[in-house]
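Q: How do we represent a protein-ligand complex in a form that can be generated token by token?
A: Start from the inputs.
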Amino acid sequence: MERTSREERRQGPSLVRGKMVPRTTYDERLLDRRGSSEWLHMDPWRVLRIQAEFVEGFGQLADLPRAVTVFGSARTPGDDPDYELGERLGKTLARAGYAVITGGGPGCMEAANKGAREAGGISVGLGIELPFEQKLNDYVDLGIEFRYFFVRKTMFVKYSEAFVVLPGGFGTLDELFEALTLVQTRKITKFPVVLMGTEYWGGLMDWINGTLLSTGKISADDPKLIHVTDDPDEAVRHIVAGHQEAAQLAAEASAQAATEADVQAAAERGGT
Ligand SMILES: CC(C)=CCNc1ncnc2c1ncn2[C@@H]1O[C@H](COP(=O)(O)O)[C@@H](O)[C@H]1O
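Then emit the structure tokens for the protein with ZJS bound:
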């Protein structure tokens, strides 16, 4: 089979090569307000494409069992200790019965997908169209390529029950703080967030516990939303304990609601 060396880009379900590869991405074109206003008149139609991306994502992921999303640097080489940590994390999550979702890219994402796959777990990659050549890593068993970052981010949150964050850069920080904001504002509840790498994240945690707390930018309880460890087993124990606590609270709340309904019904009977 002839191997191609032409430039290649995945765009949602489509693949384009060579001169068919556009100079910009869907995200870029959506967000760019400069230039001819003709672009703006097309936005209503873009909504349909965005909608289709949600439909595709929801459809593909609906049957996924409970899952954890792993974030981390796209640039971590295969011989880096963080890569090995990502692999061990993927394995540990898979052995605990969690499907592992990543951004489907290289580096730490690949490591977590590899670990999950090698442990016989479900390995999911939610990729993103980027302006340079990029494909889902080889360890992804269920992959979806998204055109729009914000659609993809919805999928990470909707289809996982916890986030684990390996050392990473801007992309990783964006994902971490989006999750923390969602938990802090109770848009999502009981959602464990674990940082892997005490040394790497130490400076950030010091700043959160120091500057952010002392200037009143966060509440006293907010740092407790983040669990930091070097040990994948501890990460998984923290996640499982968080889910057990959430299940117990939900059971107690529904028992309480049932009792209140009984009392109300009895009072109504007594009153008639
Ligand atoms: C070598 C390179 C830059 C490849 C980029 N390829 C990527 N493929 C998939 N997801 C990505 C990529 N880059 C960033 N991300 C997203 O942002 C995070 C990593 O960003 P960073 O490397 O920490 O800032 C990942 O968790 C992922 O969800």
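The chain has one domain: 57-251. The pocket of ZJS is lined by residues 71-75, 103-106, 109, 127-128, 130, 134, 168-172, 175 (CB under 6 Å).
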